[in-house]
Amino acid sequence: MRVVIQRVKSSQVTVAGQVIGKIGRGLNLLVGISSSDTETELDWMARKCLELRLFPDSESGNGRFDQSVQEIGGELLVVSQFTLYGDCRKGRRPSFDQAAAPVIAEQLYEQFVAKLRGSGLKVKTGKFGAMMEVAIENDGPVTMLLEREAT
What we know:
Blueprint: E1 2-15, E2 18-23, E3 26-32, H1 39-51, E4 55-56, E5 65-67, H2 69-72, E6 75-80, H3 102-117, E7 122-125, E8 133-147
Helix pairs in contact: 1-3
């Protein structure tokens, strides 16, 4: 499982000209599911996304990453992105052999979103399999790549 995690001031996803998900301060998560992912990877990734300290403590003013999205009461925008498993090492066209089949990926993606919602934070999503436009107002910018291979 791969997630590009971005600290944002705001973020929104649009499908067919209509905004379907919009958040304020928090995290934008671009999520790729591999063919070998299981609930174990989902659990680890959800916990990591919720607990990773990517926000400065406003009281200390030192700019260090001291607080998680949970600690600041932030919001999450979760967007499926199978292209995170694009292999560009050969030829000119990416191979997506490592990405999970859509029917499996959608089920795991929905489980991942449910785990994040269990935190009590506001969680918005894109539309699985749709052509989406994602507008991101990066904060920092702070962008991390999280990866968890099936064990």
